[in-house]
Design brief:
276 residues; alpha/beta; TIM Barrel; five-stranded parallel beta sheet; three-stranded parallel beta sheet; 45% helix; globular; binds zinc ion
């Protein structure tokens, strides 16, 4: 279904964007990614498609042509002023954020928040889905972790902070929150921040739900909003309300940013007409 919107999005000329923004009443878009790499990544490629460097650059060029890159703290203001802008984030703290993504964003002067899982920093452990993906290919994940060092280190994170990038919590070890009671969800979300604070300065309490919030009840979501300055979800262009901002997943598809963002406008407009 989602892909039908993207196919339609890919044939709508970008000059129609202003009308789509007005119809959807959404001026700030929040695309998010995990990794960018020209090589297949054995822990990620079996799970979802990631962008190549050229594809990522093309996405950013299109975004820069039609939207102003802004920091998370400017989202509300731009939305109120009806100024087209994009706020970029990355999840999972993978090493490609340091080696490939950050230099490109600096070159293009695009601010970004990267959400981290405290357990994986410094390559002390690997997310369970990556372990499964590697094991299915008969790759020893412990050896992979040691040899490939798929995550960033605290030294790299500190350096990126000095270069202007921001960081937030993405839970301690990336569980499915809907499988956990609320107190354990909170321990994951806030515990990650406490651990990060032992190693880096964390001036703002930003959080992104691991695997998104779509299976969570509204009470749990509100509690997470209450314990953070800004919470990032994954329901595309749906209005989040208060301090919840929804983001658009750019990974997992070969569609360009133009097709995905334009398609999400169509999806949001359809949703508003059917439900709101
Ligand atoms: Zn994640």
């Amino acid at each position: 279904m989602r892909h039908l919107f993207y196919i339609t999005g890919s044939i709508i000329p970008s000059v129609a964007l202003a009308r789509l923004q007005k119809a959807a009443k959404r001026y700030v878009v929040c695309p998010f990614y995990h990794a960018v790499s020209d090589k297949p990544l054995p822990h990620i490629s079996p799970l979802y498609r990631h962008r190549t460097e050229q594809e990522f650059r093309a996405d950013l060029d299109w975004l820069m042509e039609h939207y102003e890159p802004i920091r998370w703290s400017d989202i509300d203001r731009y939305e109120k002023e009806e100024r087209p802008a994009f706020c970029l984030t990355f999840d999972d703290g993978l090493k490609e954020f340091y080696t490939i993504v950050a230099p490109i964003l600096e070159e293009k002067k695009i601010p970004c928040v990267c959400f981290l899982n405290s357990t994986f920093i410094d390559n002390r452990d690997l997310m369970f889905r990556y372990k499964d993906a590697l094991t299915r290919q008969h790759i020893d994940w412990r050896r992979f972790l040691e040899e490939e060092q798929p995550y960033m280190t605290y030294a790299q994170i500190r350096e990126l902070q000095q270069r202007g990038f921001e960081f937030g919590s993405h839970s301690i070890n990336h569980p499915h929150f809907y499988t956990l009671p609320l107190n354990e969800q909170l321990n994951e979300a806030v515990g990650c921040e406490k651990e990060l604070e032992k190693h880096i300065h964390l001036p703002h309490r930003l959080f992104s739900f691991p695997f998104g919030q779509e299976h969570l009840d509204s009470v749990s979501i509100k509690v997470h909003q209450g314990t953070h300055e800004l919470v990032f979800g994954t329901e595309n262009m749906r209005p989040g309300g208060a301090n919840l901002v929804n983001r658009i997943a750019m990974d997992g598809t070969a569609f360009s940013a133009r097709a995905v963002i334009t398609g999400e406008y169509l999806r949001e407009i359809a949703h508003q007409q059917l439900h709101d």
